Amino acid sequence: MKIDRLLSIVILLMNRRLIQAKELADMFEVSVRTIYRDIESINGAGIPIVTYQGANGGIGLMEGYRLDRNVLTDRELADIFTALQSVSSYGGNEHTLLMEKISSVIPPSQSAAFRSKTTQLIIDFSPWGLQRILEEKLATLKEALEESVTVNFDYVDAAGQTTQRSVEPYTLVLKGQAWYLYGFCLNRQDFRLFKLLRMRELVKNTQVFIAKDVDASELPWSNEYQRSTVTTATPIVLQFKAESKHLAEERFDSTELLPDGNGGYKVTINYPEDGWLYGFLLSFGMHVEILEPPHIRQKLGQIAAGIAAKYIT
């Protein structure tokens, strides 16, 4: 990703007087144009980088400028290392170089304490089992994001309908244990959120696009869900018996759990009624009973009966 590449370039320039743009491009497997965009970003952050022309030229820090390692504390370096380690748990080892460089600036006398800090919190995004196809999609989309080129794919929506899409990619989002692409759909002329597992025949194009001004801090994917929840949510009352109360405690906040007087809980949730909802309810198996509303209770009973019919001979 871009942030760890920028940090890697800064650390390299701290240790080397000059380095060729082509060498940086080969090292990070991006184009020379991307490297020059990175240099502009680093300059914009207040670290003066100069490009020297000629046979012995290259890219280097402005003469006399020093970046003190103490600009970041060991705790902050450990937090960066932990974040990179977490991101690296899914989608290859592209952050390994930066992690090694961060480790290299820690004095030997403090290395043991630094290693201890980096193992206090481990976040592993990788799923149980191999997800080779998903990792390939992530790699393709990362390349498209780096190069600012469009992608084409067939998209299967929640209703099972397939449409062809051409999209300008903006952001990869890991949300709710699933990867999504947030981008501008040229077919719909609007921003959309696409689940990677629903993409088929993903292809990176050569068509370069000019990115629109998007404020990612507004979290449009969250706002979109909240808007849909407000307008279409259905109150649903669930019953967890005493022997299944631990499942309710694992899934719901304590403020949502209402003791039923018999050692179990009643829980009221508000979700849009769609295929995801029924899959979510079925995931509890026989440990939950839907009390209200009647039509969801009836629909879930029909789905369960259909499942049972497939296995009862």
From TrEMBL:
Keyword Transcription on entry: yes
Domain spans labelled HTH deoR-type: 2-57
Pfam family, one: WCX
Annotated keywords: Transcription, Transcription regulation
TM region positions: none
PROSITE patterns from the UniProt entry: HTH_DEOR_2, WYL
Protein name: Transcriptional regulator
